[in-house]
Structures
1.
Amino acid sequence: MDERLDGLIRRFMVPGSRASPTFVEDSEWEPVIDGEEYFAQVLVLLEKTGPGDSVFLTGLQIDAGVDLTGRPPGDPEYRPLADLLAAKAADGVDVRILLTAAVFSGSVPGVAIGPFRANAFAARTFRRHESLRGRVLMDWSGAGIGCHHQKMVVVAVAGEVTSFVGGLDLQPNRFDADPHDRLSLGDTRWGWHDGAARLRGPAAARVWEVFRARWAEAATLPRRYTWFPPVTFDEMNPPPFDTELPPAPPTEPYPSPGTAVQVLRSFEAWRIETLFLLYRRHWTTLPRHGVHEVYHGLAHALRAAKRYIYLEDQYFYETPGGRRRYELYGLLRDAAARGVKVILVCSGRKDPADAGVNRFRRRVTRDIQRGVIDRLKPADRANVMMHRIEDLTVHTKLMLVDDVFAAVGSANFYSRSMRGTDTELTTVYVTTGPQVRDLRVQLWAEHLRTRLTDELRPHLEDLDLALGIWNPWWLPPDAPAGTWRTAGYPAGFAPDERVLVPVGPWPEPSPRPLQRAADGVRKGAQLASSGIRAATDSTHRG
């Protein structure tokens, strides 16, 4: 093994173990950004499967009616996921679907808590196909207040396992791509930014084993029922079904020089099977005190950062179910205090499934303000920048560090995910090559809404120059004024629109300055013509 790779593994990764091994130079890790590309890659693999192959799916929500090409119902070539999987199962493919459930909110109509009721209907739709009966399980074995949040697709074709781990659910409104202008909320523009990691080799087989353990837990749940009005009560997991999955097939190494991969989990210590939290028991397949691999993995990488930490996340604030000992804000603060540039990118619009006002206020979140910024020396606060993206839900759970470390998965940055209240699965990756840098360049070009041309690419690859995207004070001294703020500076920078909005305790520029100026002129003319301006001026003089 290359000495530099060995140093990166020791610096950025927690020591591997039998439960959480480190896969060194034998597994492919490939980022997949946004739903359109993700759905396309999943579909290609599904279509390749035949007798003796396997397809395993799980997520917070899976829509039985989603077409992986993005076609809507009514299109002549529309093919819902349920039909595709049913045909594969009928051909001899081992199809297994795990749907996240909840004992109460998934069983009673009119209770709008999460997607659990929708998953009950999805399970019903899948099971209408004879070939899928016994291959769909509802899994409510989470931590009571939390749920199963892991998102996995595992496909084995001719013995070769490919796994996807990330934030994407198989939902129609996840089918989006740069520049995120195809979706809408009511009459307003809306987009969905998300990502995953594709694995091949032994790391992909490790994801198979995580799914296998989940299936074993769900298969041992007691009987529960879902009410479908007016009088139908369906068993959540009607027998017969297979209670076990076979182990992953022998997996050949996938040569990946200069890289290392880990597959990290989050599980609380207990699984809850009823509405009564006293009736709980330890997992059958997991350690008695739970699993907190994601927390330790991200914490280790944050401590190792020297140049920058780049985070995309849906929240950056705490919600019920977390615990202070698993919060990561202090590590961001420590990094900023030693001069590391901390960049936080989050949503301009909420996930519509979340309660409350959809458009976010342009300010830093309270937990970042109190846990990071307020506890830094004034001179160090400029090392932290938070940006929201206009009209976009940022659903990625992604971290990049120093162009050598990347983490992509289902775990949000808050302690609820780190503790395992929501069960999570995240992949982490280090490389001596350009893969993490190239991912950073792709993401930053997307958020700048500029084409990644051969002329522009070298400027984005130049980390010193590219950091100035987020704060003009981070630009090198010789960078021209207006760099990353004026088209043509640097050469090749030609944004179609401006959507990045810096937020927090700093001056807040408008995301659309020309439009706002035009609105001001128009309103001023209206006031002047109505005589209101003159009356107001005379009042102020008095």
2.
Amino acid sequence: MTGVAERAVGAPLVRRDGPLKVTGRAAYAYEQPVADPLYLFPLEATVARGRIVSIDASAAEAADGVVLVLTHRNAPRLAPDADPELRILQDDEIRFRNQFVGAVVAETSEAARYAAGLVRVEYEQAPHDVAFGADHPELYAPGSVNAGIATDSVFGDVEMALATAHRTIDHVYSTPLEHHNPMEPHTTVAAWHGDDGSGRLTLHDSNQGASTARAMLAPVLGIAPERVRVISPYVGGGFGSKAMPHAHVVLTVLAARLVGGRPVKFAMSRRQTFTQASHRSPQIQRVRLGADREGRLTAIAHGSIAQTSRFKEFVEQTVFVTRSMYAAPNRSTTHRAVPSDVSVPGIFRAPGETPGFFALESAMDEMAIACGLDPVEFRVRNEPEREPETGLPFSSRDYVACMREGARRFGWEGRDPAPGGRRAGRWLVGTGMAGCAYPAYFLRGGTQAAVEALPDGRYRVDIAAADIGTGAWTALAQVSADALGVPVEDVDLAIGDSALPPAAMAGGSMGMTFWGTAITEAARVFRERFGERPDPGARVTATAPDNPHVGRVSMHAYGAHFAEVRVDADTGEVRVSRLLGVFDLGRVINPRTTRSQLIGGMIMGLSMALHEEGVRDPRFGHTVNCDLAQYHVAAHADVEDVDAIWLDGDDRYYNPMGAKGVGETGIVGAAAAIANAAHHATGIRVRDLPMTPEKFLR
């Protein structure tokens, strides 16, 4: 058994779902075969704030193929205390530009779209405010921020420490409005079953957790969760935008309730995903650091201001990891928010840590220069023995080892610290680095897995996990094989269906921790109860036990990014010629899928650093560049030499597999490393992302 287990976890197995995906046989949500479907096209508000005065749907209702025009006037009622983002079409109020105000349902998608253009909606417009700035008059302190993190944290006397420090820096950094752009758009197919068309609901939906979607939607609809089934075996990316259901799901469900049991299909256009599927809000961060003569930090002050929706609050935990990253006796971290007439922001790959580390690690680079120290050595000098905020020991922390190994592989030794010292033709060349960390987030209870013996001597493992393109189909089979002590070929896996044992969503780098722990527990109970030769049909369902180490040790994944950047001296064009990430991930389940996730995250960090910026028109409240022609994400031509490696590790404090989180770790710190390298190349410090060419033509 031991030998088999060792051959499963840690092996670079190819994706089980790979052949299905490349041959087009993996059916995504919109492609699920349903009988006699109808098609939905939404109606969207053309004002940013106000109320609907009138709706004339007569022309649309008379158009060929139209079955239903849905508005707030005929929409089924939702729970009065429902999530404000999901409680749509219940009144005539407009809360943001492009809010859903209705939908047309027709026999074909073309007919629905054409008829939607025939609906005439008149509004009583009210003044709106989408402005964002540190001096906004409505700036406030939220009660808490994402993941229930405390809004503020203060230790020691930061102001006195800064006033008496040998060296200080005080800078403001900003990150813009950013939008998710998964390859698969948000899609939903909804069908009600029952004599009255409202008995049971089946949803084929692109999401990051079928159990989460069911748990959130059932109360909104006012029905028991067991009457809702959410099916999502394959998902073409999410990056947080599919972590929670959005209004488009409810819109489709409401329409399906009124069409006599026929399924209703809705696939968002790319433009619609920019306003209907959450986003990363713009942020302004101020970082102040103080250090003594030896380059040891005496004070860290990190404050963040983020934009949130006026009708539903979401604020990223931007400064959270600053509380545990570096040693300093005096620390202050704060979150503030500006309410605006915009759609609801939400989870975006490594929410909080991604923008937070851009500011923190840019500031650390600036302080290293101010202290006359190498950026790596400055960070090593400020390595804490225990977590500074809580005093807890680290479960494992190989951050320094990541920096040392990265420096060795990258050729950091002998680097001339002076900016602007290297040139290759018209290109100014520089190198930079940044650290990264991602905490272990733990949800309370609920994730389960089932193990069943099959007639042919093999095993089936059931869990409502989600594979959003990360390789969960394969990695969970490896964990299952190890836990049962059988070859991985002897495991059938079923995921992506709320009818299976409930599971945490794929988000927060928590998936493997919760899913793998539940599978390991189910396998343990199964073997104890049925032994090595179970009868066919023997089955066990078990719940992942709570982690006894939560609150006793500080648990994080770590890493270090190194970047080489070229900046055109004439045009300001920035090219990233090399990216290297070295990570502390504990035990790696599948090296092939792990490397893919890390590189994907690093490329998203590159895209954040150089390209991505949503632009709102304050006059009308809408996003101007809501397509991939104007909102640029990194393409093949932007990506040159990217490599990701990791140190050997095994952190059993995290989970029974010894694995740390992977999904978010690759993006955290990548943008800062690129910005630091660009400064080294040019001597120009860009503190406002993205680093577009004009910012280097000063």
3.
Amino acid sequence: MGPGNTTTRTRRRAVPWALLGLWVALLAFVAPFASKLADVQHDRAVDYLPASADSTQVAKIQDQLPGGETTQMVLVYHRDGGLTAADRTTAADQIGEIASAHPLAAQPEGIPSKDGTTLMYPVASTEPGTDEKARDQLVNDVRDIAKSEDGLSVEVGGEGAFATDASEVYNSLGGPLLYTTAAVVALLLILIYRSPFLWLVPLAVAGLADYLSMGVAYGLNQGFGTSVTGQSSAIMTILVFGAGTDYALLLISRYREELRRIERPYDAMVAALRGCGPAVLASSGTVAAGLFCLLAADLNSIRGMGPLGTVGILCALVAMMTLLPAILVLLGRRVFWPLVPRYGSTPKVRRSLFAAMGSSAGRRPLTVLAGGAVLLGALALGALNLPGSLKLEDSFTSKPDAVAAMETLGKAYPGFGTQPITVIAPTDRADAALAEAQDTQGVDSATRGRSGDGWTEITVTAASAPQSAGETATIKDLRDRLDGSYVGGASAEQLDLADTNARDRMVVVPLVLVFVLLILIALLRSIVAPLILVAAVAAVWGAALGIGGLVFGPVFGFEGTDPGLGLLSFVFLVALGVDYGIFLMHRMREESLKGTEPVQAALIALRTTGGVIASAGLVLAATFAVLMNMPMVQLVEMGFVIAVGVLLDTFLVRTYLVTSASVALRRKVWWPGALSKQPAAGSGELPEPVTETVGMR
């Protein structure tokens, strides 16, 4: 045996172990940081609000006022038959106990309803400041003191109570979300691979990639102040498991294919990485670029999701392209048991579902293309039925105490503002601002509050119910009349969220399309093929939103749609949907470079990648569908739209429409690249069925 062979064998043994050692060291390094990510997660209003909006400025200035940020609550005492004297005494005693236990901004005064059934006490405290844990402790202490008794119902609502209920929901997401996602991915991988061992490898690597992403996200927060919210960290976990498993499916499928052709697992893995590596790199680059475009958003929650989502994708990529290959090589062929790919063996040739799909698309490409376009267009019309903007009280799938309090107030005080509007005015113009606010149409009352650092707080009560058309008009009138002042509060925040989401869509959507298109042009050396892929995923997005419009209200009973649904679902569906187009088109380009006739190249690409794309699509859709089990309406809506969009993209657009367009255009699909100028090498007849190299075999 020569020295060259000895060196090669040594390298084959050393490289996987070296990669494994590097990962052990890396995970040991990030372990102290990954465990701290939950400590820097914040779900205060300012973490979600638009950076430049009035309501954001109000929240920031309130932090600087004496006592810091105010926690607003409303205690609601209610008895169906009417409050008794004893009920009023109980309410006064409980309010007094709260005032003794916690410093309040002002002595609460009860406001009775006209029908005598309800008494509400607005309560505000500066004790917690900006500390979310202290705020939650305050709200829970108040709830412990204000307890129902003898038929008297006591509920704690208001902005502070809403924030606490939302925070508890987001804090509870981490464990259930991770476990449910892992369980769903594990089940699908077992079904796909039909092996008692193989499924464990990509799942374990995805879990380690998620742990790495948590450490990197914490580092970004500490180094650059990147915001971390419950929503963004949940999406990061979903992306790591969904996209990471997709990359693993593609790699393992190609690796299995190479093991039949190459004797040694190390060499087979090198060939597999060379074959699918460019597609995976381009795929992850496309998703990362799309997510990075979110930095152009003005909404804090969406802008913060960009870096965390990008971190999740890149950590998944690194893990699946280094750690996963190392483990697979070390385990050898036996990891595929009982369906072990033997060296020199030929997989069973059979006509698969994707062969049938490809044949129908190849025979009548224009008919299939037109029919698919009409179907997607018809589904997109359902978006016209999407419910309006989601209100605070409709944000939970189950009714917490804060929502129950809001509903009680709405019935007992019809047409009355039970949620304060906060005005922050320059102190030297505070008196004029107060008089102007009191004189504004739709304002029931306005009172002067704290002053500090040149600013004065004014609390305004509207004559209309919270988040009603009347209150919205009052907020807009206050902003128009109070020049130099800021108008905020819970209802103003919802208004700013809706307005800023509309602005962000106008900025981010074109940016995402341009970046994705440029990456595809660079990868495919074509303009036509990238335009087809981008048009396809845009059509999928419209159809998925349309299906959401058909089910959110009538089936799920949702009263509104999250303002950020359109933008976030677009970014995820375009970036993630293009993944499958890259897998398909990259294989089509490989076949074309071999001199294969265009129609054959398109159909062979579908038959050889259709199974792995279907498997990857099912996994990705299932991971996003996990969000539908979460107790927040916005997460349910996002999970549904993205899951439906991925399934449409996988089984309709990628298999039928993109293939049909490629068959109809033939070599023109590669225009203006060199492939478009090569003469046709065959008759254009459909090829014989080929083996479908899917992870299932």
